[in-house]
Amino acid sequence: MNCKQCGKKIGILNRIKVGEDYLCKDCHKKVREESNQWNRAGRKKVSDEWIRKTLEEIALLDPNREIVPGLDIDGLPHAEPAGASHAQSADIPLAQMSYGLPEDQRPTVQFSLSDAMAVSEEFSKFSGAQTSKTFQQMLLGLIKDRGMTNPEFYNAAMIDRKLFSTIKNNANYKPKKETAVACCFGLNLSLKEAEKLLEAAGYKLSLAILWDRIIYFCLDHRITDLDIVNELLYEEKQKCIGVIE
Predict the structure, then answer these.
(1) Nearest alpha-carbon partner for 241 in 189, 176, 168
(2) Which end of the chain is more exposed for a tag (fewer CB within 10 A), N or C?
(3) Which among 61, 42, 31, 43 is positioned nearest to 230, based on CA atoms?
(4) 67: how many CB neighbours lie within 10 A of its CB?
(5) Which residues make Cβ contacts (< 8 Å) with residue 158, sequence separation at least 6?
(6) Long-range CB contacts (within 8 A, 24+) of 25-30
(7) Rounded Cα gap, residues 30 and 7, in angstroms
(8) What is the mean pLDDT of residues 29-56?
(9) At residue 77, what are phi and psi to the nearest 5 degrees?
């Protein structure tokens, strides 16, 4: 059997199947490297002037400002619903109120066996309620909610079919940050939605990092076409999105 790329004869241990063909390991590595680089030719969709002005806006973002999931896009907390109120201190048990006090000022609280069992039961309920969806669960749910087929999604996200299959079949899969971000654009998520999906993968955007700052700006301004996002990344010599892991 010969390598489809270079024609060199390859054995069973030195061949890798790509689609319907086989490549030697050297050619496979070369193809991976080339495919992971965004090809600008034929993908340009915006003018150089638009790119220049957009990058100027991105440069104005405060790199020292922390992005906190759950806040509005302008960085302000969401307004509470009418009638909502915080629990008054009188409703908080003495044992909970004492946690912030120095040890010598904390009141002595004695618990009976029934109290301990009640606390254990409440903690079990709390732990169960706090269980979050995994990145895989959230991603597949979003794809379904948007009525997308799997190919429609991974093509829109510029994700390799093999990588998507790995995510789909591994409930505890932890993607690279670039992969998680690519998924946000493939799903056409808002900034708030993207923050939640990134959080499920264990990531958050930081305005102190140029790559993150460009991604944040695009999500904030609903620039979801990855060719345009990559135009901005390319101009700033940042890694373009077209993920292969």
Answers:
(1) 176
(2) N
(3) 43
(4) 18
(5) 182, 186, 226, 241, 242, 243
(6) 27/3, 30/5
(7) 15
(8) 71
(9) -65, 150
> Is a pLDDT exceeding 70 seen at residue 132?
yes
What is the overall mean pLDDT for the chain? 77
Q: Which residues contact 77 (CB under 8 A, 6 or more apart)?
A: 70, 71
Closest by Cα among 193, 220, 189, 224 to 207: 220
Looking at the chain, the whole-number percentage of residues with pLDDT higher than 90 is 44
Strand duo 15-18 + 21-24: pairing: antiparallel
3-state helix, strand, coil in the chain (%, to 5): 50, 5, 45
CA gap 242, 31 in Å, rounded:
13
Are 239 and 233 spatial neighbours (Cβ–Cβ below 8 Å)? yes
The one-letter code for the residue type at 177 is K
pTM of the model: 0.61
* Neighbour count for residue 189 (Cβ, 10 Å): 20
Given this model, what pLDDT does residue 63 score? 82
Alpha helices in the chain (DSSP H): 25-35, 48-59, 94-97, 113-129, 135-145, 150-156, 161-168, 177-186, 191-200, 210-220, 226-235
Tell me phi and psi for residue 9, to 5 degrees. -70, 135
Flag the least confident range among 7-16, 17-26, 50-59: 17-26
CA dist., res. 33 & res. 20, Å (int): 20
Angle at 219 between CA 66 and CA 152, to 5 degrees: 140
* Count of all residues that appear for the chain in the document: 245
